[in-house]
Amino acid sequence: MKANIKSKPTIFMIFGGTGDLAERKLIPALYHLFLDSYMPKEFAIIGLGRTDYNDDSFKKLLLGGINKFSRSGKAEKDKWEDFSKHITYLKSDVNNEADYKKMSSLIDGFEKEWSETPIIIHYLAVAPNFFPIIASNLAKVKLADDCDRTRIVIEKPFGHDLQSAKELNVLLKGIFAENQIYRIDHYLGKETVQNMLAFRFANALFEPIWNRNYIEHVQISVTEDIGVEDRGGYYDGSGALRDMVQNHILQVLCLVAMEPPVNFDAEEIRNRKVDVLRAMRQFGPDEIRFNTVRGQYSEGWVKGEKVEGYRDEEGVDPESNTETFAALKFFIDNWRWQNVPFYVRTGKRMHQKASIISIQFKDVPHLIFPNQSSESWQQNRLIISIQPEMSIRLQVQAKRPGLDMTLNPVDMVFNYDGTYENETPEAYETLLLDAMKGDQTLFMRGDQVETAWDLIMPVLESWESKKSISFPNYSADSWGPETAEALIAKDGFHWFTMPIKKADKK
Ligand code: NAP
Fold this sequence. Notes:
Residues 13-195 form the Glucose-6-phosphate dehydrogenase NAD-binding domain. Substrate binds at residues 186, 190, 224, 243, 348, 353. NADP(+) binds at residues 50, 93-94, 156. Residues 197-495 form the Glucose-6-phosphate dehydrogenase C-terminal domain. This protein has 506 residues and is α/β, with parallel strands linked by helices. The protein has two domains: 10-155, NAD(P)-binding Rossmann-like Domain (Rossmann fold, 3-Layer(aba) Sandwich), CATH 3.40.50; 188-489, Dihydrodipicolinate Reductase, domain 2. The protein has helices at residues 20-35, 55-69, 77-84, 97-114, 131-140, 162-175, 191-201, 232-236, 240-257, 266-279, 288-291, 416-419, 427-437, 446-465, 482-489, and strands spanning 10-15, 43-49, 87-91, 119-124, 150-154, 181-183, 215-223, 292-295, 297-298, 300-302, 305-307, 325-330, 342-347, 354-361, 381-387, 391-399, 407-415, 474-475. The strands form four sheets. Strands 8-12-13-7-14-15-16-17 form an eight-stranded mixed sheet, with helices on both faces. A six-stranded parallel sheet has the order 3-2-1-4-5-6. It has a two-stranded parallel ribbon with strand order 9-18. Strand 10 (300-302) and strand 11 (305-307) form a beta hairpin. Helix 5 (131-140) packs parallel to helix 6, helix 9 (240-257) packs across helix 14 (446-465) and helix 10 (266-279) packs parallel to helix 14 (446-465).
């Protein structure tokens, strides 16, 4: 495999190297970066965990993960062997200070071998309660203080609420500089999400109409067809608002609504995104019930199989008040978006897995066609599908072929699969490469995370303090509670859904 000679030697310290995230996402992503010659000549992946592995048995675990989860299927023997030479396992407990000294000497060994100071990326793929202890212990053995070569990647969730997010920021910033902290939101690594920047700011066509004069409303819908699976215990303490809205959905919303940045600099782009969050209207106590809907799934049938209701899932409180569905109507108080509603929704056990942004334009000012011509009339709509289909569709009216003047909506489609031959990289490939390069554009800054928490805190507090009497209120394999339809229908709109043809990708 050709190495990327321009990249500096790099060490990935994967805390939680034996866990699900490492096996399913991180190692397959690093393997693909290696196959595609993005990895430097000198690199090391150090897996950390308490489980009793040696290098060989650890590598066996990771190979199993690649064979199961890699986008290119089973690893080829010689390529895997080349890659796996770079993997080491260090049995260690994050609470044990002495283990950090072992980490330090391992790193020193590589440094001597390579005769060069490596970039060190501490990837925290562990439960959030370990973030503070790991950061503090890294500082004690001086594995944190080199601003240029040491980085820390923090997985989601970043905090449980505004207060805990602030506390974590204070702790991290006491040890690391902001340019060392990479708060990950893997949604931002997705091709279609990144393409929002290209689509908006590399084309002259859309920006002039990207405002309240032409856009009627925006929808962002992130629905999942699965339930909580084996994450019931974790999810019951979290819920849809924390799990999806505070991070992924608000980040996507920022990309739709941000002002044009003056350049492609990470700070500039992140500044423009924070501007959006700061301009979003916070709900007063009386506004929450008119602008938000929460739901929880009951049992139902999915593809002919009976599935359990949320409260019967393993690890979930049988009287749980946790929402598995959330829909909210936001406004952004600035010149561009005044009075344009942004509807967002997310839910588990929904009819379809799909992440879609729908931008509906205002109607024509005057309709010249007779009524019978325009029975299936649809205002222009731009639909950006993030997953499973990766596409952008512009819906326009066209004359149907025939002797009558009959109009119907048709799609002008840009589809990634049909347009590009290369396989699309996984979000984690993009993000890990950016962390190696020191590019923070797709990572969240401390103030961004706090502003997003600040926005949703009134809703969280209201939902937690008032137990829902209607839960469970939607059945598995449905489109969520009826009240979610009403939230948007009372403004004269309906939720956009798209026929999904392709098998889903996680
Ligand atoms: P997991 O499968 O439960 O793995 C947890 C890891 O933490 C294991 O490697 C475990 O290793 C390690 N660990 C636990 N206690 C430890 C200790 N005292 N000392 C050293 N290591 C310890 O969890 P996960 O699903 O990988 O998730 C990890 C993090 O990523 C979480 O913050 C999660 O929210 C986030 N995340 C996960 C996913 C995903 O797809 N899984 C997606 C997005 C975000 P040992 O048991 O060997 O000690």
